[in-house]
Here is the input.
Amino acid sequence: MMATTILPVPVATPIKRKWGDTASVTLIDGETKTKFHIHEAELFKVSPVFKAGFGSHFKESSERKMILPEDDSELFNLMVEWLYSHRYDMTPSTGDEIKDGARFMEPLRLYVLADKYAVTGLKNCIARTIFNEMKQGGMTGPSIGVVAYAYRNTPQTSGIRHLLADFHACNINFEWYEQPTTKSLLQKYPDFATDIILSFAQHVANKDMKNPFRGKMPEVYQEKE
Here is the structure.
């Protein structure tokens, strides 16, 4: 009797990584004590801050555990979700001007968290997401509170600042600048006022320069990974 040859069963989705024996670390939110068990290879690849922290001679390195006392668990969960999906989506527009302006707060808070741990890939993903939302046109931009938060918590060279300044220089009705709250914002955050003026000047000086929200996203909104 001839032996029957058993052919291997084809796998529908090719295996790209072997997760079974991959080392992991535990990150613990200080407020809620939520534990995040993350594959260290994935984490260290995107965050030099965590890589350095777990590679040091401190107890975090030996215990493979780190407590994050200042981080919000829901926000950190979004960062972990991006870590494995490399995708971030904003809350859809509701048509309500106040709610639509405030919905930019989550991505800006996530951007600041990503900046804290030097997760440049997530920062660029958020910048692209916000840009694509603004590019749709006829929509409510970030609220004054969101802009204030961004300028209070990001460095001067941040790409997200360029994005916000260009949006307010090229897409906002001049009536916005006459509002008392706007004047107060520009006085309190002179860097924002300066960035808007520079954006205005660039577009006035260069007649060939188009509205950045009517084409491909400018590279200045992103950072080198």
Observations:
- The radius of gyration is 22 Å.
- The beta strands are 24-29, 35-39, 65-68.
- The chain has a mean pLDDT of 87.
- The longest strand covers residues 24-29.
